[in-house]
Amino acid sequence: MGKYLINGRKKISGTLKLSGSKNSSLPILAASILNSGTTIIHNCPDISDVRIAIKILKHIGCKVFFEKNTVVIDSSSVNFYDVPHDLVKQMRSSIIFCGSLLSRMKKVAISYPGGCSLGKRPIDFHIAAFKKLGAQIFEEDGNIICHGENLKGCEINLNFPSVGATQNIILAAIFANGTTKIINAACEPEIVDLQNFLKKMGADINGAGTSEIIINGVKTLHAVEYTVIPDRIVAGTFLLSAVITNGEIEITNVIPEHLPLKNFLQLGCFIKTNENKIFLRAPDFIRPIENLQTVPYPGFPTDLQAQFVSVLSIANGKSIVHEKIFESRNKHIPQLIKMGAKIKILPDGTTFIIDGVKNLHGTNLFSKDLRGGAALILAALTAEGKTIVHDENYIERGYEKIECVLQNLGADIKFMQ
Ligand code: EPZ
Q: Mean pLDDT of all residues in the chain?
């Protein structure tokens, strides 16, 4: 458990080269075992979730080297099909290995990932889809065992455009006999990145980025070299660091259309973009947003909700935020209230009424999850005085050396074990 020490009121200003996407790297690392050669993946962020995914790859028999954001995976000898319980506990998105292990090994054993601070996080869509593809699923003392010798393509209609379920279905269907059609698929850029990676390996898949994805099973895939897309949530977080400190920032190596820039304009920001850059200057007075809802892509992303709440805490008026994706993504709010923020959580736990205040004041804060922890750091950047953000290794899961990035942008922040 470490902590971030922040002295607030320093303007963020400067240029940041954006790191690769966590939520794209994880499914692509899982998908790398679908070929039996040596895959090279560039622009992988050096974060703890990627390091856990690499531990899983090594556990099932891959040789893996990770240096300077490039991962080299020799998956010629994958000979285990179980995902260790302690790794699933540390990273619930280990579940993404189900689809690729089913395809590679025809079976997988994994413990239920369980819930987290965001909510119950069920995996019923994943399990139902595997069954529909013809897998036999056994559950014994908290473990799921899937057997899928002869998976058969079929039509799968998702009740909700689940990102993880969409990715797992793609990975499980890649060698299935016949055609699999996913209806109401998630449209996130990370799904498109996974499709591009798979197509480069020789997969027959189309439609990612829309709500209908078609996979025609193939016999084998070959190894490739691939570069992961930039991380749109990390980009949004650092744009907001400039907004909350009345500063300015240029982010390079970013894909502007992956970000909800219209919501940044609602805050009153000045924004200029070109194909791989975003320049943002903060408004002198942050405008409130009267109705901000988290929805599936291309709408406002739930992974920026906590960070926007921090910024709206010092907006010039009242904002209302609705978290529509997760039932309890609100653990950052009691911490912000300790800083002087005026926020009410309605009984549904997902609607937040925020009355902007002039200033927040520094105090002792406790991260409860990855994006909530990042939101607390943003709030500390603007707060008067000193803030300590205690962190049970949540923030390093998704941000590569966040304290170094912010120091380079003018913040007074240190990390201590
Ligand atoms: C992915 O999680 C991301 N994680 C999350 O980012 C992100 O918040 C989420 O998508 C939504 O965009 C990764 O990509 C590793 P979902 P995932 O399945 O796939 C319900 C971050 O901070 N649901 O789209 O788990 C679920 O409970 C993380 O980087 C079911 O009911 O999200 C939730 O309410 C946090 N049954 C909703 O769907 C299922 O079988 C969306 O979940 C699956 C999901």
A: 97
Burial of 155 (0-12, 13-18, 19+ CB in 10 A): exposed
Beta strands across the sheet bearing 248-252? 13-17, 248-252, 277-281, 270-274
What sign does the dihedral 301-307-308-309 (CA atoms) show?
positive
Whether 269 is catalytic: no
The answer on pLDDT for 162 being more than 90 is yes
Q: Structure tokens of 27?
A: 């499914």
- Quick: pLDDT tens for 255-266: 999 999 999 999
The set of residues, in sequence order, having a beta carbon less than 8 Å from that of 201 and lying 6+ positions away, is 31, 34, 35, 221, 222, 223, 224
**Catalytic residue of the set 44, 98, 116, 269:** 116
35 lines ligand 1 (CB under 6 A): no
Task: Confirm or reject: Cβ of 165 under 6 Å from ligand 1.
Answer: yes
Domains in the chain: ranges and CATH: 3-18+230-416 (3.65.10.10), 22-227 (3.65.10.10)
- Give the global pTM: 0.98
Cross-strand partners of 271: 280
Q: What is the residue with the minimal CA distance to atom 41 of ligand 1? A: 162
Pocket flag, ligand 1, residue 398 (CB < 6 Å): yes
Residue nearest to atom 18 of ligand 1 (CA): 162
Half-sphere CA count of 242, side-chain side, radius 13 A:
27
